[in-house]
Design goal:
The protein has 223 residues and is an alpha+beta fold. Helices cover 42% and strands 17% of the residues. It folds into 2 domains: 73 residues, Phosphorylase Kinase, domain 1, CATH 3.30.200.20; 140 residues, Transferase(Phosphotransferase), domain 1 (Orthogonal Bundle), CATH 1.10.510. The protein has a 4-stranded antiparallel beta sheet, with helices on one face. A 3-stranded antiparallel beta sheet has the order 5-7-8. A two-stranded antiparallel sheet has the order 6-9. β1 and β2 form a beta hairpin. The termini are far apart.
Length: 223
Amino acid sequence: MIKSNIIQQGAEAIILHEGKLIIKNRVSKGYRYPELDKKIIKIRTKKEKNLLEKASKLINAPKPEETSEINIIKMPFIKGKKLSESLEKLNYKKISKNIGESIAKLHDNDIIHGDLTTSNMIWAKYVKKSSNKKKDAKQISPNDCNINNKGKLYFIDFGLGFISKRIEDKAVDIHLIKQALEAKHFSIHKECEKIILENYNSKDKTKILEQLKKVEGRGRYKH
């Protein structure tokens, strides 16, 4: 029998690690009418699952597995470290480049992550599967070689994500990652932000970055 370990428990969901899977189980709210509770959980689970499906075709993101359960999302376990715990120790310049490129791909397909922080990004190291050097070299394609040619950057947790064409929503997404970098990675945040924005080559980049200035302006004068 495969053992389940709780790796995160929040107000909305319990996250379990079970073998090669991560299982996100949305919890019921006792204060809600049972039928309404069931409907809300079903809608939110389906929405997140659909976002993961779309995102996984564009960037490195866990692709959900088929399941008939209305409150559960099953997806591959990504072995690695959250950037919130390890960014300074890694090649953060190349990681920042990849972050900018990945956000642009999501936004050009109208996917808003909604919670862009380094806690929702994982650096997964490449693990050799063979002792044959020639075979090992072929196991990593150029598209997979983001950092030091030995790993991938994954975006996770699309629970607050949604579909939107609005320039404002895309600007807020970028504002969130900038805030997260400043709060968690103060010593390198300016350099990371610069590289992310340089590589954020969305088709609407100019409009989005103009709106970003307005978003940041509103925050600056908030009391």
